[in-house]
């Protein structure tokens, strides 16, 4: 299950993806209001997203945030990984943070591990295959 932090990050990024790419930076207060994210929490999330290279920030009176790359080049999977870490539900199937399960007798024949590997693969396929552009287009089509 996605944490509230991930949902906030996705909402903020989806809001930024709808802003004109060559327009003025969007102030944090506007992002917080439009994405319905508490401002203090948003500050921390935006710092993580900036550090990961997804957004750019501009200081000052006319400052704010904008996407660092075109919205079709940022996937939902990338955003979730920055905020949550690996997509795997159990550590023994993680591609980036593997560790064996302490209570598993035989990893090679573990039915839970095999099922969770399929879940990880499908989750990654869907999230990595959905860009901010795709998600905002779906929002517009549904409206």
TrEMBL record:
InterPro entries found in the cross-reference section: Tscrpt_reg_Rrf2, WH-like_DNA-bd_sf, WH_DNA-bd_sf
SUPFAM superfamilies: Winged helix' DNA-binding domain (SSF46785)
One Pfam family recorded for the sequence: Rrf2
Domain of life: Bacteria
Transcription regulation found in the keyword field: no
Sorted UniProt keywords: DNA-binding
Signal peptide coordinates: none
Matching NCBIfam families: rrf2_super
Name recorded for this polypeptide: Rrf2 family transcriptional regulator
């Amino acid at each position: 299950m996605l944490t509230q932090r991930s949902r906030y990050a996705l909402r903020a990024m989806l809001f930024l993806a709808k802003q004109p790419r060559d327009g003025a930076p969007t102030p944090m207060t506007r992002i917080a209001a439009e994405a319905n994210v508490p401002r203090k929490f948003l500050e921390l999330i935006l710092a993580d997203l900036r550090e990961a290279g997804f957004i750019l920030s501009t200081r000052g009176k006319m400052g704010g945030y904008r996407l660092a790359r075109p919205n079709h080049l940022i996937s939902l999977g990338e955003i979730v990984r920055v905020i949550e870490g690996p997509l795997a539900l159990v550590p023994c199937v993680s591609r980036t943070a593997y560790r064996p399960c302490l209570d598993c007798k035989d990893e090679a024949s573990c039915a839970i591990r095999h099922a969770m590997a399929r879940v990880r693969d499908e989750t990654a396929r869907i999230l990595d295959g959905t860009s901010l552009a795709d998600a905002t287009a779906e929002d517009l089509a549904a409206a």
